[in-house]
Amino acid sequence: MSASWEPDELDELLRQAMQARPEVPRIPMLAERSMRRAAALSRGSSPIQISILKTCRRWNLVSSAAAAILITFVVGIGAWSLRHTISSFNSSTSDTQDVSSTSSAAPGPALDGAILLISATVILILAKALSQDAYSVCSWRPSRQAW
Amino acid sequence: VEELTDISPGAIALRKREPAAFAELVHSHERIVSGLGQSIGLSGAELEDAVAEVFAAVFLALPKFEGRSSITTWVYQIAGRTLRRWAGRRGKHRTAELPGDVPDDRASPPDHALSQSETNDQLWAAVAKLQPRQAMAVELYYRRQWTVQAIAQAFDCPRATVKTLLFRARNELRRTLDREDLSS
After folding, report:
1. Whether the Cβ atoms of residue B2 and residue B28 lie closer than 8 Å to each other
2. ipTM of the prediction greater than 0.85, yes or no
3. Is the dihedral angle over the CA atoms B19, B22, B27, B31 positive or is it negative?
């Protein structure tokens, strides 16, 4: 413990500093926001929604539309990569060594359909997470200070 | 501490989760709860989220309010628990930043006299680095000028615990002030 700060002196300094601290401005619609948050929490599924939304906000995405576009883009790239990987795998395991036969090893409509279905499901799940419910829970307003 | 009696019609309306009564409860406690959030270093949208989470927890717990303590004490007990949990989650993400936050005592010349506002800024920052319970005790004792007894009720602990929290907080702040050479 240092001798440079007597208890009374520190007490006084702390009192002055803490009382000089500006108050936080009132949060608009706090009661409504809290009730929506409580309702979402009590439904059980919303913590995931809130987490997704908070992650998006941490990345400073401008709107839910931007988030949806980004997610679609990522899922699209993922689906394309998967298709490409499967295609390469099929061609490498093909019996023939003929280069021209590679194109015939491409996956058929069934695989395309499966990838499309998986992509659509992922997009729908994420779109639901970014739905108005989660939006209202977090009061995701572009005008707030965090932006 | 501003008290609402547990037998008031307002308290009964609260137990029924009537929106108007809840809005009034939020309005009368928001300032203190926001201050508690400030004291542990929250600001901006994160502070708003934390305060909303506190009142969401209060709203969910309203039917269970039995009136054994005043509604005000009960709200601050929930606020303390919720904000400590919040700070814990936040601390896990911020561990990597801590070394950068530690002031370097070689950085400022010994005869550097800081203005009052700079001193205040550094003290607020130092308080935010305390353990959440210590920071909240400092907030309530020094800023809101609550008694040790009132803080003990809000923290749901003995008075001696509050005195210990304040003692340790002062020691930690004293060390921080010495490092930053504010006494010069």
Report:
1. yes
2. no
3. negative
